[in-house]
Design goal:
By secondary structure, the chain is α+β, with helices and mostly antiparallel strands. It has 15 helices and 15 strands. The radius of gyration is 20 Å and the shape is globular.
Length: 373
């Protein structure tokens, strides 16, 4: 994987591929096929399959404050480690040499998890290390974007090591991957230089938490999340994410998100407050881990009606009901697009008006013809 302008991760072939490798890539790559949703007691065309839908937060106030949205994901990972379900966790951390960017890391303790808590709105390649991880033989938890988890689920179809060594896969609701250029624009708007940074947090240390940059000279810049995401990062999201049919982690064992409080406009409020997570268990394995976390008092939770998710995550609801129109534009213009069977795209699209669908079809077609990828 390498970085391509304006700052997205792209694969580069460095040697000939044999037919088995080609077939493995074709099976697993989420650019080609998205893993279909699995069976569960409940199912929603926007929010996927689930056993339980809850709101809650870590019972440890340090974790709750450090993480991006209540610390539920961090708390679950710590329980997975402490109960021996896994020996370590494969996940993203900030690149020490380029703090706005990401690298992969292993966490083997609660302190490791807490140190690397917080959302990272930049390109990442969590599966770049998967072969080494599987060769190691130890059991580990995997945390990645919904497309990363989809790829790992598909890889399990051709590689038996995945099922035996990755007993739990966790994900989150994803707004799409912005380019590195978006983060650089934030730093510049703070009056700082990207190359001078020694620390950069997209959010966290509060909910939603400030975007914060620190230079080697000790200069500090801060920006509200509503501005960093709303004014800079969201406009830098790559095209593939705009046609994503499962940005809610529908094939993860557990998916977490921000349980935003809605404002008068119907859209989330971003004023600082105590963090609150949306938690959806999607498999019996995820259900068992969640229940163990509650039993151990690592999480404080309460039931959440599925209709409330629409209020907490309106942008995700909109994307799902309009993705069919966007994919149709891609198909008509002969553009690559993933196979999306088993993801309830047609059902979700019925919630969109004809005007909404036409606008998104036309907008996607225009973007493709202008080469905005």
């Amino acid at each position: 994987m390498e970085t391509a302008a304006p700052g997205y991760s792209r694969p580069r072939q460095v040697a000939p591929l044999n037919i088995v490798t080609e077939q493995t890539i074709e099976t697993a790559c989420p650019g080609a096929t998205i893993a279909p949703w699995q069976d569960a007691p409940h199912r929603h065309p926007s929010w996927g399959p689930w056993y339980q839908t809850l709101s809650g937060h870590s019972s440890d106030e340090t974790i709750r404050h450090a993480a991006s949205s209540g610390g539920a994901l961090s708390a679950l990972l710590i329980v997975a480690l402490e109960t021996g379900l896994v020996e370590r966790v494969l996940h993203v951390m900030a690149d020490p040499d380029h703090p706005t960017r990401n690298i992969m890391t292993w966490s083997e303790s609660a302190s490791d998890i807490i140190e690397n808590a917080g959302s990272r709105y930049a390109a990442s390649s969590p599966l770049a290390l998967i072969e080494n991880a599987l060769q190691d033989g130890r059991k580990f938890a995997f945390v990645g974007k919904p497309c990363d988890v989809s790829a790992l689920r598909q890889l399990a179809r051709t590689d038996d090591r995945v099922a035996s060594q990755v007993p739990i896969m966790l994900s989150f609701f994803c707004g799409g991957v912005p380019s590195h250029a978006g983060a650089d624009r934030i730093v510049t708007a703070m009056g700082l230089k990207p190359n001078d940074l020694v620390e950069f947090r997209y959010r966290g240390n509060g909910w939603p938490g400030m975007t914060r940059a620190v230079t080697a000279g000790g200069h500090v810049g801060e920006m509200r999340y509503a501005d960093s995401w709303g004014r800079y990062l969201s406009s830098e999201v790559q095209f593939r994410c705009k046609i994503c049919p499962d940005s809610v982690g529908g094939v993860a064992d557990i998916a977490c998100a921000d349980a935003w409080y809605g404002g008068e406009s119907g859209y989330p409020q971003f004023e600082e407050q105590a963090g609150r997570s949306l938690i959806m268990t999607r498999t019996s394995v995820g259900e068992a881990l969640l229940n163990r976390a509650i039993q151990m008092r690592a999480l404080v939770t309460e039931p959440l009606g599925i209709a409330n998710v629409d209020l907490m995550q309106p942008a995700q609801a909109r994307r799902k009901r309009l993705v069919a129109a966007r994919l149709m534009a891609s198909a008509i213009l002969g553009q690559p697009r993933p196979q999306t069977r088993g993801l309830d795209i047609g059902t979700a699209s019925r919630a969109a008006s004809w005007k909404e669908q036409w606008q998104n079809f036309a907008g996607t077609a225009r973007r493709i013809m202008m080469g905005l990828r």
